[in-house]
Amino acid sequence: PYIKANYLLRAVFVPAGNHEIRMVFEPEVIEKGKMISMSAFGIFLLLSVGGFLKFRRKTIAKNTEN
Fold first, then answer.
1. Whether this model's pTM surpasses 0.85
2. How far is Cα 54 from Cα 49, in angstroms, rounded to an integer?
3. Is 62 in a helix, a strand, or coil?
4. Alpha-carbon span 34 to 13, nearest angstrom
5. H runs (alpha helix) in the chain
6. Strands 10-12 and 2-4
7. DSSP state of 11
């Protein structure tokens, strides 16, 4: 059970001894946002590399014609 320690902080009563306490706040919206951001970045990279390769291929073909 959490105990209110301060306006923003929480506390946990722990008896004497060796303990490991982990308080984690991992909202689902953060994970979804991370996946959307990574997907958008991946698409951006693919389009950037594809555009560069197309431009380079066009430039090389133009130079070989001359």
1. no
2. 9
3. helix
4. 34
5. 28-65
6. antiparallel
7. E
Separation between Cα atoms, residue 16 and residue 10, nearest integer Å: 19
Q: How many CA atoms lie within 13 A of 40 on its CB side?
A: 6
Q: What is the pLDDT of residues 8-51, one digit of tens each?
A: 777 888 889 999 988 888 899 999 999 999 999 999 999 999 99
In the numeric block, the tokens 């004497």 are attached to 16
- Nearest Cα to Cα of residue 13 among 25, 1, 24: 1
Maximum distance among all Cα pairs of the chain, rounded to whole angstroms: 84
User: CA quadruple 31, 32, 33, 39: dihedral positive or negative?
Assistant: positive
Q: What are phi and psi of 2, to 5 degrees?
A: -85, 145
Q: How far apart are CA 12 and CA 44, in angstroms?
A: 45
The amino acid occupying position 33 is G
